Amino acid sequence: MNPAKHWYALYVKSRSEKKVLMQLEDQGIEAFLPLVTRIKQWSDRKKKVEEPLFKSYVFVHSNEKEHYPILSVHGVVRFVTFERKAVVVPDNQIIAIKRYIDDFREEENSLKNADLKEGQMVRIVAGPLMGLTGRLKSVNNKKYLIVYIETVGQYISVNIPRTKVEPIVENEK
Predict the structure, then answer these.
(1) What's the maximum distance between 2 C-alpha atoms anywhere in the chain?
(2) Which of the 8 DSSP states describes residue 14?
(3) Residue 127, domain member (yes or no)
(4) What's the CA angle centered on 125, arms 119 and 126, to 5 degrees?
(5) Cα torsion at 144, 150, 154, 158 (round to 10°)?
(6) Beta carbons within 8 Å of 106's beta carbon, 6+ residues apart
(7) Per-residue pLDDT tens for 148-160?
(8) Does residue 92 sit in the same domain as residue 145?
(9) In this predicted structure, what is the pLDDT of residue 39?
(10) What is the DSSP letter of 77?
């Protein structure tokens, strides 16, 4: 009978996350490296770059018997530990990270709807509030909008990414 597998966090050498991931997968070990795409600016160009969400960390789904082979992978420094025991990362945290990665919008998408103005009517086009309309209250850190939605004669404030709303043309209401 195989011992139960759990998620663990590995601390790896700086800038070697992708190499470690490939080596682990080559050994048949399930591994997860949350990557996000960002726009990097150089003096002469901009380029999309995939980089780790958590620098120097890779997650592995393994049992304790597999720990030694994992530690022998070039670039792996150690397991994240507490009181000298590898810390189990709960499944719900891995799921939450995966959902975050799925929802992550690269920085250039934050320019979507850049022309939105305070007081303008908008429609939510994605997510659990899809289809609701509201009035834009403020632009918060260029990526998120605070929209007030009228419900039952009350207003509720929701913080929503600008990529999930679209402006409503005034004659469209």
Answers:
(1) 67
(2) T
(3) yes
(4) 125
(5) -20
(6) 36, 37, 38, 39, 48
(7) 666 555 667 777 7
(8) no
(9) 78
(10) E
- Do the beta carbons of residue 39 and residue 46 sit within 8 Å? yes
- The two three-digit tokens of residue 91, written as one number: 């499944």
Q: What is the dihedral of CA 54, 96, 116, 110, to 10 degrees?
A: 30
Neighbours of 123 (CB within 10 A): 16
Closest to 108 in 3D by CA, of 46, 34, 158, 166: 46
Could you report the per-residue pLDDT of 58-105, keeping only the tens digit for each?
A: 999 999 999 999 999 999 999 999 999 999 999 999 988 887 787 665
- Is residue 16 domain-shared with residue 99, that is, in the same domain? yes
Both 94 and 117 in one domain: the answer is no
Q: Which residues pair with residue 121 across a beta bridge?
A: 135
CA of 92: how far to CAs of 7, 35, 103, 122, in Å? Answer: 10, 18, 16, 33
Confidence label for 43 from pLDDT (cuts 50, 70 and 90): confident
Radius of gyration of the chain (CA): 22
- The average pLDDT across 11-34 equals 96
Structure tokens at 5: 């597998």
Of 104, 134, 152, the position where a domain reaches its end is 104
